[in-house]
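From: lab user (bench 3)
To: helpdesk
Subject: output format question, protein + magnesium ion

Hello, I'm new to running complex predictions and I'm not sure whether the block I got back is the full result or only part of it. Here's what I submitted:
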Amino acid sequence: MSLLSIKNLTYKVDDENDVKEIIDGLDLEVEDGKFVCITGPNGGGKSTLAKLIMGVNPTTSGQIIFDGEDITNKSITERAKLGISFAFQAPVHFKGIRVIDLLRLAAGSQISVTEACDYLSKVGLCAKDYVNREVNGSLSGGELKRIEIATVLARGTKLSIFDEPEAGIDLWSFQNLIKVFENMRKTVKGTIIVISHQERILNIADEIVVIENGRVKKQGSRDEILPELLGTSSASNIACNKLGGEQ
Ligand SMILES: Nc1ncnc2c1ncn2[C@@H]1O[C@H](COP(=O)(O)OP(=O)(O)O)[C@@H](O)[C@H]1O
Ligand SMILES: [Mg+2]
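Helpdesk reply: Thanks, we reran it on our side. This is the complete output you should expect:
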């Protein structure tokens, strides 16, 4: 059964005197419990699609059905309540907020220190060193990214969306991040959508979706799509982005 069903979705913006179709009649079905990787050239519309699913951008036309319910006109908050989460590039924080506070906010309950530690271990952080740390500039980019991922895990929603989690982190953090996703693949029951150019993340996907010019260009199992992807011009794009991510 499809958890997420997107039908003939468009997102248009006024660009000077022109109307630009950023998402242009996109259809996509995401099955429950799958780990789906969305990839494709830069500017193809991947981040826009994620924002349309979360409700950050308004849909121009078409339909988004989540878990049997039409969410096309629902607010971000309503979608979050129905069970969609979106990993921002860095966790939201206020002065004085500790890692455990963020995890409790995400979980929506007073989770215990042990439970908080469990989420932190899942993202490869030595929990006792982090649980009471303040979320501020003393944490590295890779640590912040992993704390953000831990909050998504603590939310425990039916659908979690990650937009290029590898962006802007160093090689050491990148290798740990791959482990986090490999672990998530094994332990998380919900559906996961990761937008990524990384071959190692594509490699753990059940399904790969290639988005280009605001449409789904290809969709299929990893075994169907990945060899093709690595043998085409998109592969150089992947390689490029990989180098970019590892600098
Ligand atoms: N609000 C907007 N106004 C004009 N152009 C936009 C807007 N949002 C996105 N775009 C353009 O739409 C295209 C798709 O962007 P994006 O979804 O970020 O692509 P991707 O994440 O696949 O790299 C890009 O060319 C981007 O510049
Ligand atoms: Mg993007």
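A quick orientation on your result: The chain has one domain: 2-240. Let us know if anything else is unclear.
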